[in-house]
Amino acid sequence: MTTTPRTSALGADLERIDGHAKVTGTAPYAWEHPVPAPTYLHPVQATVARGRVLDVDARAATALAGVVTVLTPFDAPALERGYDAELEVLQSDEVAFRGQLIGAVVAETPETARQAADLVRVSYERRPHDVAFAADRDDLYAPGVVNGGHPTDTRQGDPDAAFAAAERAVEATYTTARNHNNPLEPHTTVAMWHDDGSLTLHDSTQGVHTTRDTVARMFGLDRERVRVLAPYVGGGFGSKGTPHAHFVLTALAALRTGGRPVKFAVTRQQMFSFVGYRTPTIQRVRLGADADGHLVSLSNDVVETTSRLKEFAEQTAVPARTMYAAPNRRTTHRLAALDVPVPSWMRAPGECPGMVAPEIAMDELAEACGLDPVELRLRNEPDIDPDSGLPYSTRNFVPCLTEGARRFGWDRRPPLPRSTVRDGWWIGTGVAGSLYPVLQRPKSSARVLLRPDRRYEVAIGAVDLGTGAWTALTQIAADALDVDVDDVALRIGDSDLPTATVAGGSSGTTNWGSAIVAAARRFRETYGPDPEPGDGSTATMRPNPDAGRLSMHAFGAQFAEVRVDVDTGEVRVPRLFGVFAVGRVVNPRTARSQLVGGMTMGLSMALHERSVLDERFGFVVNHDLAEYHISACADVESVEATWIDERDPAVNPMGTKGIGEIGIVGTAAAIANAAYHATGVRVRELPVTADMLLTDF
After folding, report:
1. Per the residue annotation, which of 304, 351, 359, 661 is the catalytic one?
2. What is the maximal distance between C-alpha atoms in the chain?
3. Dihedrals φ, ψ of 570, to 5°?
């Protein structure tokens, strides 16, 4: 008798396991989780950019029916100090930025809490503030390291001398705007203290264990006395990847409600105040090449912002270190410390803004060399990682470029800009490269347990932001256990489950999946093919022996078609097309969704997103979705993402590289390059707007 081999779950185009619950409204997000007798919080925010709170008059607020309590800097419960200045809510009367949380009202209804918060009167000692961002400030400084532990500056050879001697050269300054994360579900926390002094949080977070450990430290608790639940999260894009002040404020307020839970849903306007944003950047790029277009010098000198309250140093220049071959190279980071909220993670931090400037500069260099932009990139393909000197585990940027160019129809592109006008629209096309590192953090663990119903319960404290982790991890577990997908029952989103790293850096599938594979292998080694109900094993992700021997990155090539109205300068993008090398694709359906979503977000960065800071008052004035524009369906007619078949056994047991962030990297530069090809007007500032393109019409 022959047995039909089980079809591998990895690579199967499965529907989302959590899809039915989400579309029917039965998947509870943090705010919707049922709790007994909830109360509701609305914050009081600073209306000065810098200063000190002198007095808080809450008499009108407390007189309002339904108000439970009011917290101020003068009577709030104490927190542990010296751990994270951003999270030390109501522990001082100092105001570090406008919009800072300086009080809170808790009431029986959200409406009452909001009304009462508006009645709180605050007196300030105002101090001069400084929020002006410029590259010529005399107080710029070099951080010790930039995010990810990367060196602040790097230098190889003599880039200045090589640039001066180059036969072809480009030197220009490029800027990217301040951007704010706007996931569909704003930040939400529900906090409830129990009689035994333990705390439960339902939180919209990208990492339940990170949130648990942070709140335990801030409140001086053993972390076993804190439980954080986040089974469903409505997007994060990095803003929920690190704790912010709002959840500490909610837990503080819950100390005053006699055990009643406190709910706090951050409003859309408040999303622009205290939950992070992408720093604006000013990047001075210098590219020098020989007559054949081979780079001899590459420099990217970056200036960006941080907050005086707490340092955040985005790794913007890091991608320039590894993308193209050049014997002489320099990258630097300098920070301007301002009286602004603390910047934070936003989709593909570092790589996203850090690829804009070099990829537009490469387009300019191609023109200076008389080369096609695709050909210039092909000529500067490195044999090894130019930064580390390590060989790549796989580097399939060239196949992405060539296959993308073929499928996009790049060969039909007229070589000269401003060559095509049709029905009142200038038409152009552009290209840019993408890369994103494979981030491996061997801290995740997973547990496998055979239940009485003979299903395998696979548990890990991972969080699904809507990226498809519920489905992908189930597929990985099924293959690792050699069972069908229906035989796996996944549990995630609970800090009581085995430790998982944060859902960020396109590392979730890599790290959580590796832990699940390790647990599944240990389970089979221990119990064999016929275990008994109750049998279980736990294992931790094993360190990758190749991590220090190989450079591991995902790559991609982005293509864009842009149309610009000849009379108004209005920009339309009929086509976005991306080809990626992202290792093994666990689920084509969710993978494509992530890549298309990233490309759409890159389109938004290219044409719309800019948080406008009023320097007089120190706050973002377009702080809602009516004035902070993001891409809509009308902005692009076709977004298509595909990938090459890439096998890379060195990265992890599944061969995956991460998909969530590489889609945004390179998209904005491809659109800016296409806008130049359409109009002949070179824009070095994002977002690209009509007035910029009308300059030379």
Report:
1. 661
2. 86
3. -55, 135
| Cα–chain center distance at 609 | 15
Q: Which residue's entry shows tokens 């009011």?
A: 70
Please indicate whether residue 661 is annotated as part of the active site: yes
Half-sphere CA count of 525, side-chain side, radius 13 A: 9
User: Residue 402's CB: how many other CB atoms inside 10 A?
Assistant: 15
Sorted by sequence, the CB contacts under 8 Å of residue 479 that are 6+ apart come out as 8, 9, 10
Angle CA(156)–CA(441)–CA(659) in degrees, nearest 5? 80
State the angle between helix axes of 667-679 and 588-607 in degrees (0 to 180), rounded to the nearest 10: 50
In this prediction, residue 697 carries a pLDDT of 52
- Name residues whose C-beta falls within 8 Å of residue 157's C-beta, 6 or more positions apart in sequence: 327, 328, 329
Q: What is the pLDDT of residues 345-361, one digit of tens each?
A: 999 999 999 999 999 99
What pLDDT is recorded for position 4? 53
DSSP assignment of 574-637: EEEEEEEE-B--S-HHHHHHHHHHHHHHHHHHHHT----EETTTTEES--STTTS----GGGEE
Question: What is the rounded distance in angstroms from the CA atom of residue 400 to the CA atom of residue 396?
Answer: 6
Question: Sign (positive/negative) of CA torsion 154, 158, 164, 168?
Answer: negative
Structure tokens at 534: 């109750």
Task: Give CA–CA dist 499/268, Å, rounded.
Answer: 31
The H-or-E segment that residue 533 falls in is: none
CB 438 within 8 A of CB 658: yes
Length of the chain: 697
Burial of 3 (0-12, 13-18, 19+ CB in 10 A): exposed
Rounding to the nearest 10 degrees, give the CA dihedral for residues 320, 323, 324, 330.
20
Terminal C-alpha separation, the chain: 77
Tell me if the pTM is above 0.85.
Answer: yes
Q: Is the Cβ–Cβ distance between 19 and 590 less than 8 Å?
A: no
128-172 per-position pLDDT tens digit: 999 999 999 999 999 999 999 999 999 999 999 999 999 999 999
8 Å CB contact between 537 and 522? yes
Q: Which amino acid belongs to residue 251?
A: A
Residue 430 DSSP code: E
Whole-number Cα distances in Å, 420 to 294, 534, 572 = 30, 69, 15
Residues ≥6 apart with Cβ < 8 Å to 644: 396, 399, 400, 403, 579, 580, 581
Q: Which residues of the chain have pLDDT under 70?
A: 1-5, 696-697
SS3 355: helix
Nearest CA among 394, 435, 141, 170 for reference residue 296: 170
